[in-house]
Amino acid sequence: MRFYETTPTHDLTYSDVFLVPSRSDVGSRLNVSLAPTDGTGASIPIVSANMNSVTGPRLAAALARRGGLGVLPQDMHPQDLDAAIRWVKAQPVGWDAAVDLLADTTVAEAREQLPPIAGHGLVVHDASGTYLGAVPAERLADALPDAPIRDLIGPQGPSIDVDELTGPRAAFDLMVEAGIEFAPVLHQGKVVGTLSRKGALRSTLYTPALDDQGRLRVAAAIGINGDVAGKARAIIEAGVDVIVIDTAHGHQEGMVRAIREVAALGLGVPIVAGNVVTAEAVRDLVEAGATIIKVGVGPGAMCTTRMMTAVGRPQFSAVLETAEEARKLGAHVWADGGVRYPRDVALALAAGAASVMIGSWFAGTIEAPGTLAVDDQGRAYKESWGMASTKAVKERFDRLDAYELARKTLFAEGISSSKIYLDPLRPSLEDLLDMITSGVRSSFSYAGATSLEEFHERALVGIQSAAGYEEGKALPVSW
Ligand SMILES: NC(=O)C1=CN([C@@H]2O[C@H](COP(=O)(O)OP(=O)(O)OC[C@H]3O[C@@H](n4cnc5c(N)ncnc54)[C@H](OP(=O)(O)O)[C@@H]3O)[C@@H](O)[C@H]2O)C=CC1
Ligand SMILES: Nc1nc2c(ncn2[C@@H]2O[C@H](COP(=O)(O)O)[C@@H](O)[C@H]2O)c(=O)[nH]1
Ligand SMILES: [K+]
Predict the structure, then answer these.
(1) How is domain 2-93+208-367+424-469 classified at the CATH fold level?
(2) For residue 197, what is the enclosing H or E element?
(3) Domain named IMP dehydrogenase/GMP reductase: which ranges (predicted)?
């Protein structure tokens, strides 16, 4: 990466910078590979944040199906974390995990799982597990809230039989012919998932992130306290592909010790550690045994660290400096936090990140944990909160006595409750991935790059004023 015209004399964040187009021989944006080379096996440079409101097993599976990597949070109880990892590993690759409801679930309860939007749907079972039928999500729109979901099972459209599924293109054509957007996928009369037209199309465009047994990849986080080695062994036993050791202040002795303990186990998976923002921290964590460094202190949407402590660093410069150092050491960087637009992802990659971690943006999706709520104006949202918020700290330390818990909550550095609205045009994680990857593919071609490596080398970055940033925004209504 080079700066255009001027070299900065102070630290910059994503909004301070822009990419300058360069002469390019990239004929098509589809000829661009976004695959990171950080050893995680991902085919797109997107990682979901280890936050309780962001990454649950459903989101992790959906993300891996499109080539990214979900990081399950360290706050899950060990048995839930174990079950979540195993669940992801058992999910289908070629179609989606079904939203599966019992026949007497009410329409109101179903709307907490799915918005009434075409292209989505659910399957219905009776109490004995017999499959009763599928319901396209748009049927939820006008149904009475207290009606049981079984009343919405209308005349069945065609289902897709796994044994006859020759490929995603054939499934897409079948749905077009039948005039449907969504279909259940059956195997020997049992539902094994669902598929949408868009899902079939995406299967032709994305490469799933799979382990050597052909299962979806997944990462999980552990903290730096307690039996770190025991926790690492347990998640490896469950099948995890990448271990993330995560704490607010990653450049501390406790972190160095934790990395050493995990590295000494020789588990054969990438070890990610953070969060830090300086080259010196990168050296220390890589020296201890981390292969990927998670970078970002304070940019997160749920994060109050900068206002509480003044600590942190504008994220573009933090990524640039740490990625440069990591590269020298044969290690990699994940840019964590503060990403709100595809441009931010492109800029993090230009600064040298191997992958970009996204939290709050993904919290407002169908696949994120938690249920959908609707505000006064009828807009659907999910709740999100920071992992260092009072809410998260109370949940994390729910087994401590009241005095110890009160001590822990003194240091809250995150928001306890925030509404993240679903984008009505892009309600699912996969819609956001389409937007992000198409934006970033285009960034690569403007820079004349066909790979992440070439993008790192060729990116030309300028510094802009606040007016320059403002000029780049679209105008939803006239002047
Ligand atoms: N990227 C970011 O900007 C930030 C992210 N977070 C996220 O919040 C979650 C909780 O992390 P965390 O609060 O580290 O909790 P952890 O449970 O991981 O514990 C952190 C440990 O480090 C000690 N510590 C020393 N100094 C600090 C410090 N300045 N901040 C925090 N801990 C410190 C704590 O002791 P003691 O409690 O006694 O001080 C505790 O033993 C993580 O998911 C983390 O990524 C949180 C803040 C910032
Ligand atoms: N200081 C805090 N940082 C937090 C908290 N919860 C999460 N985080 C960090 O934010 C990123 C995600 O950023 P986003 O802008 O995409 O939402 C996450 O990975 C953590 O590093 C918190 O409570 N306090
Ligand atoms: K912030």
Answers:
(1) TIM Barrel (3.20.20)
(2) helix 197-205
(3) 12-473
